Amino acid sequence: EVQLQASGGGLVQPGGSLRLSCAASGFTFSNYDMSWVRQAPGKGFERVSNINRGGSSTNYANSVKGRFTISRDNAENTLYLQMNSLKPEDTAVYYCVKEGGPRGQGTQVTVSS
Hints:
Blueprint: E1 3-7, E2 10-12, E3 18-25, E4 34-39, E5 45-51, E6 58-60, E7 68-73, E8 78-83, E9 92-98, E10 107-111
Parallel strand pairs: 2-10
Antiparallel strand pairs: 1-3, 3-8, 4-5, 4-9, 5-6, 7-8, 9-10
């Protein structure tokens, strides 16, 4: 059974940083591209970033480019999202997604003073 458990969210002030982690199990992690998506209150899903299976290629939404960094550790079956210079509009539930699905359990990020 594929399991994706995101963690590391919380309440942070504008300009602050958080590092999200996603522990993956139930599949060969290194064989799949991975993504982070988010859903803000009352809005649809937005893909934040994705990374290829080897970690050599990444893409970012314009809204987070230059502030967020996606990475992965295939030896530890873990996906990361380093989020810097956080803004109130980054407030959302963040999920990691395996290529082809599914979407895992999310972690809440709230950016507020």
